[in-house]
Amino acid sequence: MNTNQFEELVRSALNNIPQGIREQLQNIDIIVEDVPKQDQLGGIEIDNENLLLGLYEGIPITLRDDYSMVLPDKITLFKEEIEKICDTEEEIVEEIQKTVIHEVAHHFGIDDTSLDTLGI
């Protein structure tokens, strides 16, 4: 899948998030990269069983105090990593949706343990 098609699927996934939640996504960039950069891995080893599909970089809104005049938070989806775990375009669509929801949840202060409990 080319990058433009993948980015369109990311936009579609964002549009599937309920409007009330989408409206609270302020000062946040959502981008697509092929693979994570070394500094995004935070020193963790990534192998074929533990791929980094998406990453939220920023301060969750639950931890913000004075948050004016700052650079945007960033959600990155990693195209090649998502494609590695998917066999069909339908699986890619589903994984993008799941990854977008997961990273948006981090923006709202929901940690990985809570997301695992919710099955996200």
Describe this structure in words.
- By secondary structure, this protein is α+β, with helices and mostly antiparallel strands.
- The longest helix has 19 residues, at about 90-105.
- Helix content is about 45%, strand content about 15%.
- Helix 1 (about 5-15) crosses helix 5 (about 90-105).
- The chain has helices spanning about 5-15, 20, 40, 80-85, 90-105, 110-120; strands at about 30-35, 55, 75-80.
- A three-stranded mixed sheet has the order 1-3-2.
- The protein has six helices and three strands, in the order ααβαββααα.
- The radius of gyration is 14 Å and the shape is globular.
- The model has no long low-confidence stretch (mean pLDDT about 90).
- The protein has one domain (about 5-110): 2-Layer Sandwich (Zincin-like).
The span between the termini is: 24 Å
Percent in strands: 5-15%
Named CATH architecture: 2-Layer Sandwich
Q: Would you list the SSEs in sequence order as H and E?
A: HHEHEEHHH
Instruction: Report low-confidence residues grouped into runs of 5 or more.
Output: none
Instruction: Output mean pLDDT.
Output: 88
Gyration radius (Cα, Å) is: 14 Å
CATH class: Alpha Beta
Helix amount: 40-55%
Number of strands: 3
The main pleated sheet reads as: 3 strands, mixed
Number of domains: 1
Class by alpha and beta content: alpha+beta
